[in-house]
Amino acid sequence: MRVNLSRACRRQILRPSSAGTFSPRRTYAFQAPGGAVFKVFNSRAKWLQKERSAANPELSRQGDYLKDEVAMRVCERLLDIKRQFPRVLDLGANSCNIARALTRENPDPDPSTPTSPPLATKIGELVAAESSPALLFRDADLPFNAGLNLTRHVLADDESLLLPFGLGSFDMVLSSLSLHWINDLPGVLSQINSVLRPDSPFVGAMLGGDTLFELRTSLQLAEQERRGGISPHVSPLADVRDVGGLMGKAGFQMLTVDVEDIVVDYPDTFALMQDLQLMGEGNAVLGREMGAIRRDVLLANEAIYRALHGNEDGTLPATFRIIHMIGWKEGGNQPKPLKRGSGEVSLKDILEHK
Amino acid sequence: MQSKTRPIQNFAQAASKCTAEAAIYGQCIVADYNTVYKDKCANEFMKLKNCYLV
């Protein structure tokens, strides 16, 4: 501690006081609780990418297929919760894909069940929170907005929820395809837990694991061969095992974590990368090489992707691995696991007598 | 901004004409992708690049 303190002091002294850049802000010599946050993503770059992608609404909507699909799958999970939700938060709303999915007629895909009303009828108010205003308000005048009570909220900071919303202010938190850009995932998950009322669910989906592994490997090979070294082009992503642990650590009960792979076929790598750009899902890893990828590498990448992963019909598959998670905030008369050692039936007996 | 074609689309268009050369280069890399070093397939790549520049 003392070492830190002296270093902080020295830095202040060494700073030229005559220059106009001197900041009166103190640097504190202690760490915030929860440990240092390891910065992986450049949130400013991510914000810019989202703003730019939404600058042309027509084009931007063409890149919505993945987000719409995942939002739909997230919302299907709500069919299992027989409850009314007066106030719901959609964290990282993108272009309100969840709101669109909620207003869909007959959300239950099972043809044997009768037609059900849109899920929006279960929701009193949906607060769609997103840091990029251009993306958030892109579809503000489309017809689906009339289908539910939707409030759009521009987040000043992706990673602080308590400031704008306060403790225990939501009956459910939804999140679809945005948590994978969060630097401090443990912190954000525990904030989600705090903004929930007791005994309320968090239903989320994020990209994880082997998402875009084809692009990752072929770009690595192309860069290695053309330039003799590699720079990150695809984000490091959370794995399924990590997510369970993180949710538990954030205080969620009755966890459900599962994985779905969505494989999309593209005509070539340029179409894939252009669509990623339209989604606002470009590279925003800190420490990446700035500027565009060189033409040589792109040309090599196209050839390697095709040789290594290409389909027989000449298309190129791209895998999106979606990690779905459901967790409940503790409270009420929620079912809890029994105490360790309190079991009276031996699983061994059951399995042996079968 | 989007009214004219982006340069990258012209590039993609040009690159798509060289499937034969691309396949040869791709095979050269994929044949042993655990030991890839700089300019391992430089000859194959130059052929591919020549084709796309034409």
Automatic annotation (TrEMBL), chain A:
What organism is recorded for this protein? Answer: Parathielavia hyrcaniae
| One BP term from GO | methylation
Q: What is this protein called?
A: S-adenosyl-L-methionine-dependent methyltransferase
Question: One Pfam annotation, family name?
Answer: Methyltransf_23
SUPFAM superfamilies from the xrefs? S-adenosyl-L-methionine-dependent methyltransferases
Question: GO molecular function of the protein, one example?
Answer: methyltransferase activity
Q: Name one GO cellular component term.
A: mitochondrion
**Carries keyword Methyltransferase?**
yes
TrEMBL record, chain B:
Q: Name one GO biological process term.
A: mitochondrial respiratory chain complex I assembly
What Gene Ontology cellular component terms go with this record? mitochondrion
Question: What's the protein called, per UniProt?
Answer: Uncharacterized protein
Q: Which organism is it from?
A: Parathielavia hyrcaniae
Species lineage = Eukaryota, Fungi, Dikarya, Ascomycota, Pezizomycotina
